[in-house]
């Protein structure tokens, strides 16, 4: 059912009233109902204008309701409403945000059809969307088109062009060439230009070039931003220049630039990869004391580092901190901790985290499929070796229910364990499912099963023989008594 909102508008309904009500309404359906309710006042002389249409389109775009937003655009044209560039750009940016660059171009092309001439701002917005979405060939073609139609070159357009060229190691030299040419075109590089190039050089491991540009930036009174510092710190950590990266962190603090979550996470990553997880943990405390909230990436880095060094209890503590912050650990993080416990033969603890992962609704998907298969099989086999067969079987059944592949080794381990325990019914059940799955047991596994059946048969025969002997022993005196009676 749709949301029905009835308004009793005053006789002198104003656009500012409508704009205020739509802006204040968080529910998109209710906001649309307010807009429609105002439309019903057309009979009383009210008309939607650029501001009411604009706020409604903006709301729809924020809610990813692009079709209704574009329908309102068409309605503005029919109602001969003043169509301005900012409304088109809000839809273009919305499409960019949801990774639909071609729809952004389509809406941009619509502007002329609506008799709205795109300005330099529109061209730069669409150019940036194409670069952000890695549509580099189309972006460069679009840039050439910008020049052909006479869009003047600016620092903003050249920065986006440099960003496009910095996305590929083979075009970094071209990006540097444009950077050097910028002053000659009357567009001196700004801190964003330097930051983009430094980030590009760091991405492709060209740390020397990145450091040179960074020093040049400081010499030209261009204050490096937190993004530029963080890019260089990340690059230094990637190239294992950890002490230099730590020095840069201190430098930015001295310059009054507060590190962000990316800065701290980059340093923690470098420290953990270098086996210095204790220092990474200290950095976490510093970060929290500065009211900088760790994110999922920060926690992942620490958990991976601590597990690699065998510090499982500390890794579990970090996982708990993460959950307390309201962040949901993914399959990869649980997998690290589960594998860690398996490596030190603590399979019951590993099984507990496997249960927690399932309860947390960490679903199996295409990307985590192989990880789920690996950890489930590892834990089931481990529990069998630890003689916790009932729990191993429980997990095995969970695997079957959730469609997680059971490895041949897991089938055989379960079957051998059940044979050893004398539970041939379950052993046969496992073998049946093994054959259904197309797994052929090895000769040794067959021997174990057949041996168990043979042993059971021998026991059965012994019991039957014992029963015969027992019956005959008690039956003979009865016959004698009967004989005596006659």
UniProtKB/TrEMBL annotation:
Keyword Cell wall biogenesis/degradation appears in the UniProt entry: no
Keywords for this protein: Repeat
InterPro entries: PPR_rpt (IPR002885), TPR-like_helical_dom_sf (IPR011990)
Entry annotated with the keyword Repeat: yes
Chain ranges passing through the membrane: none
Pfam assignment, any one: PPR_2
Family annotation (Gene3D superfamilies): Tetratricopeptide repeat domain
PPR repeats: 84-118, 154-189, 190-224, 225-259, 260-294, 295-329, 372-406, 407-441
GO terms for MF: mRNA binding
Residue stretches in coiled coil: none
Family: Belongs to the PPR family. P subfamily.
Xref: NCBIfam families: PPR (TIGR00756)
Protein name: Pentatricopeptide repeat-containing protein At5g46100-like
